[in-house]
Amino acid sequence: MQPWRQVFRDGIAPQLPLEALEGLRLGLVRNDPRLRPGSTVESAWGVYGVQIIQACAIGYGGWKGARLETAQDIEAFFAGVCSRANEALGDPGACGAFIRWFDGNRREVVFPQLLSEVNRAIAARTEQEAPEDVQAPADQASPQ
């Protein structure tokens, strides 16, 4: 398995809240130009003050999915996800494999591959969180 994929599956995805995964999924599906490599988050002054204008994959999930509103909150979200992922993988630099892959390839390559991993993570998470069917034991008669 490719290192970036292993890091995303076993390190990053488990650290992202479901709403962040879903926000990232929408950005990938829509090919949102605000989902960009190169920096965690970028902000600029706008009509209503400082506004977020773009973010990396992890930052975008926090911004659009978890509804974080400031660059500082997105930076902290990114740092927390990466720190927990690195710890889970037992390597203080593990997230670097994902970051280098995301930053170093064209979106036409990255987006479809990352989308498949995000969909996989969402499916696994929602499968785990779905309540099991409750059925009466087979030896109990149904009331008539």
Give a nutshell description of this structure.
With 144 residues, the protein is mainly α. Helix content is 58%, strand content 9%.
Question: Your description of this structure?
Answer:
- By secondary structure, the chain is mainly α.
- The protein has one domain (3-126).
- The chain contains 6 helices and 2 strands; from the N terminus they run H-H-E-E-H-H-H-H.
- It has helices at 3-12, 18-29, 57-65, 71-89, 95-104, 107-129; strands at residues 41-46, 49-55.
- The longest helix is centred in the last third of the chain and has 23 residues, at 107-129.
- The termini are far apart.
What's the structural domain tally?
1
- Helical content (DSSP H or I, runs of 4+): 55-70%
> What's the overall geometry?
globular
User: What order do the helices and strands follow?
Assistant: HHEEHHHH
Sketch the major β-sheet: 2 strands, antiparallel
In terms of per-residue confidence, which ranges show pLDDT below 50 for 5 or more consecutive residues? Answer: 134-144
Count the E strands. Answer: 2
Radius of gyration: 19 Å
Helix count, per DSSP? 6
Structural class: mainly alpha
Q: What is the mean predicted local confidence, pLDDT?
A: 90
Cα(first) to Cα(last) distance is 56 Å
Strand content: 5-15%
Q: In which order are the strands of the major sheet placed?
A: 1-2
